[in-house]
Amino acid sequence: MLVVAGFAGASEAAQPLRPVDACFFDNDQTLLVVCQRSGEVLALDSTSGAVKTRLTVGGDLTAIERLPGGTAWAVDTAGDRLIEIDLEAGKLIAKSTIDCVRSPVSVIAGEANQLLVAGLWSRQVTCVARPAIDEPARPVWTQNLNFSPKTLRLLQPENVVLAVDAFGSQIAYLDASTGEQLRQIEFYGHRIRGMVDDPDGKRLIVSHQMLNSAAQSSNNDIHWGMMVSNDLRWLDRGRVMEADEENFYKDGHIDPIGIVGQGGADPNDLVCTVDGIVIVPLGGANEVAIGHEEFYELARLPVGINPVAVAVDSRGKTGWVVNRLDDSLTQIDIGERSVLKTVRLSEGWTPTTAELGERLFHNASLAHDGWMSCSSCHPGGHAVNERADNLSDGAYTSPKRVLSLLGRADTAPFGWIGADAKLEAQLQRTVRTTMQGHNKLTGEQVTQLTAFLESLVPPPPVVDASIPEVGESIARGQAIFQRQGCNDCHAGSKYTSAELYDVGLEDELGHTRFNPPSLLGVGQRGPRYFHDLRAESLEAVFTEHKHTLSKPLSQPDLEDLLTFLRSL
Predict the structure, then answer these.
(1) What value does the mean pLDDT take over residues 502-509?
(2) What is the pLDDT of residue 4?
(3) Measuring CA to CA, how many Å separate 310 from each of 90, 255, 329, 386?
(4) Which of 44, 161, 349, 355 could share a disulfide with 31, CB 3.0–4.6 Å?
(5) Is 9 a residue whose pLDDT tops 60?
(6) In the chain, what is the greatest distance between 2 CA atoms, to the nearest angstrom?
(7) pLDDT of amino acid 71
(8) Does residue 190 surpass a pLDDT of 60?
(9) 118: helix, coil or strand?
(10) 290 close to 334: Cβ distance less than 8 angstroms
(11) Across all residues in the chain, what is the average pLDDT?
């Protein structure tokens, strides 16, 4: 395998660029790459991998999409904007900018000149009309969701947008013209990263994982891929449009990624070529899987650290894999199932302790047979809205909701029953008993993982406190929160405490005392709540389950309390 440097003209400061997405451009002659950390768009020669030109746009770039008509749009999550990218006289330029939904993470083409954008933490999908010359972009519609969307797919001729959960299992059906939510289903899987059409347009191919709450984190269940599986699923397009959960999977099939002894952790975004060949990066295995529906087993090629995306030329012959955590791209020959070269995008930087911990967090070699990484249940450091049956409470048969890791620093003890007084102890136990890792973490690895986890901040709130009427509702809700005594358990700036409390819940093992999770980011954890996901919504925590209420709240008080909680 050839390794070449593609960083000619790189910026002087020695720091990682953090490439996250790529697309072919300029009649397949150019590969555009967006870099999250440096805020740059790179234009590479699509054959050699040499950097031809670069453009610094700043922000937190998370995706780039080449849309019909030849335009490419980069997504800036931190700046809440889309940036139109073009090549003129061999130089990259930013032709226009569109302000859009908060926390955008993906963009696709809609009807006519419209763009459809998923807002991760705003929990919205929005439609904007692309600007004409000297005219501003025009918002068309925005739809609120009860989950955080990431992947979008437009189904034609039905003109329906599928908005797919970034963490859990929800799929919302939206009218592409009006934004009206037509229905919502719960998909049998989580961490849904890819959703593409097959060549004849009759099926959708989906890459995802499945956390099975009926399985246990035993060596046997992990060995056979029963606890966490990594899958490619072919769905009949007609069944998808019917959205009947009972028949949703009929006339489709599922192919596992990974075999006994060689799991395929963390399938990411996927591509299907014109010849029906599927290419999917395996973020936890540091590999890319290539295969055809007719063949049960996929070929797997080694690439860089944490591959997250792949771009394929229009003929389906050559692909470039984007390796997020070592600043590299891997060129592959799709027909030959071989690696052609690896291109380094930067040099001269040394990963920090937290960055080394992030690599471990995404490394499936910590788990038995490589079936999962920490990211499998905690994508982006957050959590899937599912239950796992492990030994965090001392025994099996009592699966509990996976807790978010965002903002968990200084919130000890850890776990639903507070079994681990220190984060370091929880890390050792997780690798040993939940992931069934063969080796105990070294002291250095514990330090690295701890540094990474302590760097994770809470997600931004769902509600916008800068809106005057929202701010007033938050103030009223905070007073209700205190009046109801919620701050007795959810105390201080972290909205938690170190004690165990009886709040009227009991698990299958007879535990009735639980440690209160921090409420920072609680509005981003739905749709379901409590240790066993019994509450269908945050509202249901109080209306149906009467959580710690001596008497029901009035509707205005309930709405203010919910607004306050969603502001944390």
Answers:
(1) 91
(2) 66
(3) 24, 20, 9, 28
(4) 44
(5) no
(6) 70
(7) 86
(8) yes
(9) strand
(10) yes
(11) 93
The mean pLDDT of 415-427, rounded to a whole number, is 91
| Per-residue pLDDT, 7 | 59
Residue 59: strand, helix, or coil: coil
**What is the gyration radius of the CA atoms in the chain, in angstroms?**
23
Token pair, residue 399, equals: 């699966």
Instruction: List all residues 6 or more positions away from 168 whose beta carbon is below 8 Å from its beta carbon.
Output: 147, 190, 384, 385, 386, 527
Neighbours of 429 (CB within 10 A): 17
pLDDT of 394 above 50: yes
Beta strand 190-197 pairing with 181-186: unpaired
Those residues with Cβ within 8 angstroms of residue 162's Cβ, 6 or more apart along the chain or in another chain: 151, 152, 153, 154, 155, 171, 172, 173, 174, 195, 240
Q: Is the pLDDT of residue 284 over 50?
A: yes
* Distance, CA of 1 to chain centre: 31
Q: What is the rounded CA–CA span in Å between residue 39 and residue 74?
A: 10
554 CB contacts (<8 Å, ≥6 apart)? none
Question: What distance, in Å, lies between the first and last C-alpha atoms of the chain?
Answer: 49
Bridging pattern class, strands 2-5 and 19-25? unpaired
Token pair 């335009």: residue = 71
Q: Which DSSP category does 433 fall into?
A: I
Give me the DSSP letters along 207-235: EEEEE-TTS-SSHHHHHTT-SEEEEEEEE
Average pLDDT over residues 256-277: 93
Q: What are 91-102's pLDDT values in tens digits? A: 999 999 999 999
412, 424 contact by CB (below 8 A)? no
HEC readout, 332-390: EECCCCEEEEEEECCCCCCCCHHHHHHHHHCCHHHCHHHCCCHHHHCHHHCCCCCEECC
Six token digits for residue 554: 């009035």
Give the Cα separation of 433 and 222 in Å (integer).
Answer: 11
User: What pLDDT score was predicted for residue 295?
Assistant: 73
Residue 306: name the closest of 281, 286, 328, 330 by CA.
Answer: 286
DSSP label at residue 287: E
DSSP letters, 146-172, are SS-EEEEEEETTTTEEEEEESSSSEEE
Show the tokens assigned to 61. Answer: 């770039």
Are 70 and 58 a contacting pair, CB within 8 Å? no
**Amino acid residing at 353:** T
C-alpha–C-alpha distance, residues 363 and 305, integer Å: 9
What is the arrangement of strands in the sheet containing 138-144, beginning at the earlier edge strand?
104-109, 114-119, 124-129, 138-144
Q: Is 297 a residue whose pLDDT tops 80?
A: no
11 pLDDT band, cuts 50/70/90, is very low
CA dist., res. 264 & res. 104, Å (int): 28
Tokens 């019994």 belong to 534
Give the pLDDT band of residue 10 (cuts 50, 70, 90).
very low
Is residue 217 very low, low, confident or very high in pLDDT (cuts 50, 70, 90)? Answer: very high
- The answer to whether the beta carbons of residues 243 and 235 sit under 8 Å apart is no
In the predicted structure, residue 432 carries a pLDDT above the cut 80 = yes
